[in-house]
Predict the structure of Carboxymuconolactone decarboxylase-like domain-containing protein.
Amino acid sequence: MEPRFDLMANELGAKISKRFYNVSLAIQQSSLPQATQELVMLRVSQINGCGFCVDYHTKDAAAAGETAVRLNLVAAWRHSTVFTEAERAALALAEEGTRLADAHLGVSDQTWAQVREHYDDDQTAALVYLVSVINAANRLGVIVNNPGGAYEPGKFADMAN
């Protein structure tokens, strides 16, 4: 499987990618727990079928110390016991905020209340932007057919420079 187009090899694509990464970096540097960020990005990427992003976030989460059990169960988080109530609220928001085109009515008041119970204003802002940004990243990956399998943890660490 070969990508259709290398956004980073195109001058405009690389310029936009750098700015896109800087938004992601601001979210990463927020007080939203890093484990929650990785779980949310992995779950959204699974829903959207982005092989590159599933590969990326699985490997980055594992490199950061996330357990194989939790990574393997994130797709079935509603039917597992390994996630905290706060993580469950974040995963529910991620799913509801991602499945907008599936005749979903958006984020339910119940899910929003659970998010607000567990996350302060800054963490909530980071979580909302995280769901939006990873959905955009998934779409980029799927459109240009970026395959999963070859990502190495930390690959994009110097992109902010």
Q: What stands out?
A: Helices lie at 11-28, 34-48, 51-63, 68-73, 85-98, 109-118, 121-143. DSSP finds seven helices and no strands in the chain. The mean pLDDT is 94. The first helix runs from residue 11 to 28.
